[in-house]
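Summary: Need help interpreting a holo structure output

Steps to reproduce:
1. Submit the protein chain below together with the SMILES for flavin-adenine dinucleotide.
2. Request a joint structure prediction with the ligand placed.
3. Inspect the structure token block that comes back.

Expected: a single structure record containing both the chain and the bound molecule.
Actual: see attached output.

Input attached:
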Amino acid sequence: MPETSDPTALKTIPASGRVHIVGAGPVGLLLTALLQSMEGFSVRLYEKRHEYTRTRMVQLAPYLVADSVESYRTDSIDGDSVEAIFDPPELDQGLAFRQSIPPDLMALLNNWTLGFCPLNAIERSISDLIDARGSGVERTAAVVTAEDAIAMLEPGDVLIDSTGSRSLLRDHLVPGSNGVNEGANTLQFRLEYALVITFLYGQPYDCNEHCKYYKNIENAHYKFIPMVHRTHHDGSVSHVTGIINISAEDYEAMPSRFDGESLRSGFPKVAQSMDRFIDKIKEETQGEVLGDLEIVRIPLDLYRARHATSRQWLIGGPRDHPFASSPVFLAGDSAVGSPYFQSISLGFECAMYLAGLITQRDLQLREMLDCYELYTYKQWLRVYMRSKMIKHNKDLFETLDDPLALLDKLHIY
Ligand SMILES: Cc1cc2nc3c(=O)[nH]c(=O)nc-3n(C[C@H](O)[C@H](O)[C@H](O)COP(=O)(O)OP(=O)(O)OC[C@H]3O[C@@H](n4cnc5c(N)ncnc54)[C@H](O)[C@@H]3O)c2cc1C
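--- attached output ---
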């Protein structure tokens, strides 16, 4: 990043600083818990929701608690990408940041990487931990606007936007855009539209690619594809989540969330694929679906903020704008979003790295911004490759019985 010619420009974050974190979803909460225990920071956490109500079951990646480079690279799809993208010192630095995580928080992370957990249980646990520690965090329950966020900054404050996919400040990080040019700072790919279907099943049930194939053999068009490792036994109860690829027209015609009966009456062909699959699970394991199905329709988008920090303001923005004297960072879904159930882990990992950078008091601000930009870019490369690979594999899977269609999707050279 080029030098700024302004001799009054902020060089490092002040020794006792204020950190504003807007958005107390999982990533904002993790950042708060990480910075709360660091000497000298006062954290102000802003959240518009009064309650944590999102009950969907989520899974965190085991690499989040890896304690060696080898264990960090165990994932069959992105193990190689990790080695290709990150230099060994970068991996070591990430592991060192991780080892400095306080034991109370690390215990929670360890637990969540073992299986599935409701999203609001993750949110509540971190939130309770922050409150139980009892110091260093001031909470504000409010909808923060971009203008509020800019106005509350004093020189040297740090501002972190963890407001999720509809980020509050993403488009404000480009000087001159003033947030009015929606998407000015976003690169986005829409991979597909999907129904995400979750249900509880009263028997242990596991799935692999063979099982997915044979249970879909009569499903010519729509196919129900449960995630591998996305079934979790809680006693004899399995939590199952699967995806059905739908068209843009289906997506437009569907409500945003519904139950099994409304899918069956409104979209019988889509429902049949799911029901056939479930019937085969039942034949195999003699269990029953417990309660109703939860169904949401979502576009599966892969996106990133082209700038994940305010460094453009530091380089060339007007000097009197607060972003020129207070660093701003995007974290979690604000910065990078990915489909196929990977985003919390990605957001958590970037949060750990960001907290590690912020606590290095002698680190030059310019370097801090550059490091975070480079790190989020590398994480983006990693998740981009992984998501494209999953999507490609899904596309192949959906045409396995049609060799010509399959060959059309195989571009070997
Ligand atoms: C069906 C489904 C299943 C999923 N399963 C998984 C999974 O298994 N694993 C996984 O890793 N990910 C999964 N995800 C994705 C995951 O839920 C998100 O990546 C994650 O919630 C992002 O966390 P975040 O903290 O960045 O943002 P969010 O969770 O979106 O939190 C943002 C917070 O900011 C608050 N906020 C927003 N604007 C303002 C404002 N102006 N003022 C004050 N507060 C504000 C919001 O109220 C919210 O609390 C799934 C997503 C879906 C839709």
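--- end attachment ---

Reviewer comment: The CA atoms of residues 95 and 238 lie 33 Å apart. The first strand starts at residue 17 and ends at 22.
Status: needs-info
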